[in-house]
From TrEMBL:
Domain of life: Eukaryota
Record-linked Pfam families: His_Phos_2
InterPro entries, per the entry: His_Pase_clade-2 (IPR000560), His_PPase_superfam (IPR029033)
Name of the protein this chain belongs to: Acid phosphatase
Amino acid sequence: DRCNFVRMRDVLVALDVHALPLPHGLGDGGVLERVDALATEQIVRMMRGGGGPGGTGADLSHEAHRHSLGVFVSQLLAQMDERVRGENTTALRLYSAHDTTLLPLLMILGAFEPPHNRWP
């Protein structure tokens, strides 16, 4: 069985940001940073078609990318085009997304390249 570092990271980060104690032995020695790096690697591997966490073997292929982010990216690009053509005067748009949405979006835009970048 493979460890699901993505889920582990979510739990550890939630504890950390709420100033709750981390499980014994995980609060020192850079364990949180290492779990963060491993979770990032796991998501990137899934996005590139190398298998999902937890030994599921799930891949997010090109087709899955299109279904998971394609509609949003298409909408985003259409809104940008409208703004450039002067058809839409909205100055600012806010979007809400989970971090597991941001990382693939950054990859699609070419703005995230591990191991140099960290989880958003």
